[in-house]
Write a structure and sequence with these properties.
Oligomer: single chain
Number of domains: 2
Strand content: under 5%
Distance between the termini: 84 Å
Largest sheet: none
Structural class: mainly alpha
Number of strands: 0
Radius of gyration: 25 Å
Order of helices and strands: HHH
Shape: flat
């Protein structure tokens, strides 16, 4: 009976690892498949635009630009949230280590690493990243010839 328990104790992590990596592979494949379908449909829309009248193509292009602005806004909000969470984790780790480790060494400073990473993310989103009104996705050099 003891041998069966040992076998089960070894098999549980193996089966868990196989299940985890199988799930990750399928999730990654399905995400890539979705992106491929979106790119295909977008190219089909652009092909139809080239054949359509000027009025309808302008409306569709406006819709596509609005979708792009929404995606950019979601990315910025995700970076803000990630920066806030990472900074809060860093602050929490620093406080936890300061209170729990009674030695004189500055172990609490390990919490500064995620804190500064979170602050760097927030700095990037607020100062350095392209703002929603900018024409960042328009292509390299597109703004230089507008005079």
């Amino acid at each position: 009976m003891r041998e069966l328990g040992d076998v089960v104790a070894v098999l549980i992590p193996i089966v868990g690892a196989v299940a985890l990596f199988s799930f990750l592979a399928i999730a990654s494949w399905s995400e890539q498949r979705r992106k491929e379908r979106e790119a295909y449909y977008r190219s089909e829309v652009l092909k139809k635009l080239s054949e359509a009248s000027a009025d309808s193509s302008k409306r569709i292009l406006d819709l596509m630009q609005e979708e792009e602005r929404g995606a950019q806004r979601r990315r910025r909000e995700g970076l803000k949230l990630g920066g806030l969470i990472t900074a809060a984790v860093g602050l929490g780790v620093a406080v936890f280590l300061k209170l729990m480790v009674p030695i004189e060494e500055p172990v609490w400073a390990a919490g500064l690493i995620p804190l500064f990473i979170g602050l760097a993310l927030l700095l990037y989103v607020t100062v350095l990243s392209p703002q929603p009104g900018d024409r960042a996705g328009a292509g390299a050099g597109s703004g230089a010839s507008k005079e």
